[in-house]
Amino acid sequence: MTFMPKETKKGEFLLTLSGFLIAGLVGLLIGLSAFLIFKPASSSSQKSAPPTTVEVPVARALPVHPKEIGVFRNNLLETINEEYVRIIGQALPAVVNIFSARPVEGSADLEDGNQKETKQKRKTWKKPPMDEETSLGSGIILSDDGNILTNAHLVKNAREIRVQLFDGRRYEAKLLGIDSPTDVAVLKISAQHLSVLNWGDSDALQVGEQVFAVGNPFGLTGSVSRGIVSAKGRNPTLSSTSYEDFIQTDAAINPGNSGGALINVRGELVGINTAIYSGNGGSNGIGFAIPSKLAKFAYASLLTKGKVIRGFLGVETQEVDEDLQQIFGLPTTEGALITKVEPHSPASKAGLQRGDIIVKYNEMPVKDPAELRISVSQSPAGSKIPIVFYREGQKHQIYVEITEQPENIASGANDESGGNPSWKVTVTGDLQNVFGGLHIVDLDPTLRSRLSLSPKATGIYLVDVEGGYPAFDLLYPGDVIEEIRRPGSAPIKIRSVAEFLQLINQIPATESVAVFLQRGNNQMFVLLKP
User: Fold this and answer.
1) Three-state SS across 46-61?
2) First-to-last C-alpha distance (Å) of the chain
3) Least confident of 63-77, 151-165, 326-340
4) Which residues of 59-68 are buried (b: 16+ CB within 10 A; e: fewer)?
5) Residues 219/256, Cβ–Cβ less than 8 Å
6) pLDDT per position as a tens digit, 178-191
7) Which end of the chain is more exposed for a tag (fewer CB within 10 A), N or C?
8) Which ranges of the sequence are coiled-coil (predicted)?
9) Radius of gyration of the CA atoms of the chain, in A
10) Which CATH class is domain 426-528?
11) What is the DSSP letter of 406?
12) What residues are paired with 99 via a beta bridge?
């Protein structure tokens, strides 16, 4: 038996132990690596985790993950596109093309050229149609049996009116009624089961809201443009007698769009395209449409009565600016300043006076004269309307019984007496206040007659205004000054030049004064400032 030395056995033991330790460490590292690598698969194989919903962060401006891009494309952009197509598809069949027709002489083609050319034309000439058609504009079908709304200026005085539907069918149209103040007319065609547009609420429109203009620009049937509501309550002609309250839009409106539809994103009729602001006849991004609320009122009245029946208050008004606000002691510049009250009118009977400022009509605020005019026009005759107004800085309320608007309102007596005037002109001279440099005369019967004033009219006639004085470019020859108002004071009527001179000599050089005057057919307040 052979024995190993004691030192040799000890070394072999240590070597064997080191091998086991190294092998154990390597195995441990391999096991940990495998656990980390295969843990998700192992966990999912043991137990299924509940499904989770991944939300796209709202703060992100654009999607960044392919799945998110698919969500936006399939569920939002395509949906919007499909809605556009659906809405326009419903509106197009309800918008028609309107034509006028006039006779054409067959010999018209034979009037030009020399004899040889004329003979050649005669060889190939064919008889032209009985009528030549001219595309006027557009119209909107509002009933399935053929009631069509369009612009009055398209069909006024037309000898014959024809309508072409979106599918190409043509009909002769009968004019049921026309209303020039709102530029609305109603036509009728003999057809049934037509596509129609439903009324929308123009009052609910907001600036920035998307709208579509549908019509036939330049005779191009069924054209659509898209834009936004740029503004509301526009009165571009600045007329004191019209009922303009236009919606302004940047949707392209061109010749031929007149009478067409302005629809909202629900496909509802919110306006009737009627005018553009343009220097070249084309669209410059400023178009105007009659609000559906105003058009609907006129349409219903034309259908039932053949004309538009409007309410009548009997006042003429002007806007209030910041200067007049101070003179009349008003809290804001909103309201309608009365410049004239018709005799025996509802306003006169209720006690309204020139210089009153109407700020609320039938519980609704009055922003300006145009808003008041439209509100009054839509008030039924016989209705008692509460009116809130300011007089000399104090707020008052009265009830006015509205009557039907007369067809012709008398403008006052007209004295036709002749004779040559003998005027004595008075010059205010270098007066150190706002009334310096005026040349004035008393009213006499001849002046009243020539100016179409009442024989009892009072005031002074302005002959001239010298340059370099405050009233220059504000007062004009021909003005009749009837009244002046100083800040915080009651109105003072002017009856003669003598009274006027006595009054203006008391006015300080630094004081602004409001002058009420008649200029032609208009009455207004004008503020004179130092």
Assistant:
1) HCCCCCCCCCCCCCCC
2) 141
3) 63-77
4) eeeeeeeeee
5) yes
6) 998 889 999 999 99
7) N
8) none
9) 40
10) mainly beta
11) P
12) 135, 162
Which tokens in the block code for residue 377? 């026009």
The pLDDT-based confidence of 28 (bands split at 50, 70, 90) is low
pTM, two decimals, is 0.61
pLDDT-derived band of residue 18, with 50, 70 and 90 as boundaries? Answer: low
- For 202-305, which CATH class? mainly beta
Residues known to be catalytic? 153, 183, 258
- Cα separations in angstroms, 91 against 73, 149, 480: 26, 14, 54
Q: Which residue has the tokens 């132990």?
A: 17
Reported as type and span, the H/E element at residue 111 is: none
Please say whether the beta carbons of 118 and 110 come within 8 A.
yes
Residues of the chain with CATH 2.40.10.10: 202-305
Taking the C-alpha atoms of residue 195 and residue 140, their distance in angstroms, rounded to an integer, is 10
Please provide residue 338's backbone torsions phi and psi, each rounded to the nearest 5 degrees. -75, 125
Residue with tokens 């839009």: 249
Question: Three-class SS of residue 460?
Answer: strand
d(CA 408, CA 524): 22
Give the chain's largest Cα–Cα span.
171
Per-residue CA distances from 81 to 73, 75, 278, 293 (Å): 11, 10, 31, 29
Question: CA distances (Å), 122 to each of 109, 128, 129, 500, in order?
Answer: 9, 13, 17, 80
- Residues forming CATH 2.30.42.10 domain(s) in the chain: 311-404, 426-528
Architecture of the structural domain at 311-404: Roll (2.30)
Which tokens sit at 294? Answer: 């105003």
Closest CA to 487 of 333, 326, 318, 321: 326
Our measurement of the distance from residue 281's CA atom to the centroid of its chain's CA atoms, rounded to an integer in Å, reads 20
pLDDT digits (tens, 9 = 90+) for 77-96: 888 888 889 999 999 999 99
Cβ-count burial 108-144 (b if 16+ within 10 Å, e if not): ebeeeeeeeeeeeeeeeeeeeeeeebebbbbbbbbee
Residue 258, number of CB atoms within 10 A of its CB: 26
CA distance 503 to 489: 13
pLDDT at 21 over 70: no
CB-based burial label for 381 (10 Å; 0-12, 13-18, 19+): middle
Q: Which residues contact 63 (CB under 8 A, 6 or more apart)?
A: 56, 69, 71, 72
Q: How far is Cα 240 from Cα 221, in angstroms, rounded to an integer?
A: 36
Alpha carbon distances (Å) from 348 to 311, 342, 398: 15, 7, 12
- 390: which residues sit within 8 A by CB, 6+ positions away? 328, 329, 330, 335, 356, 357, 359, 396
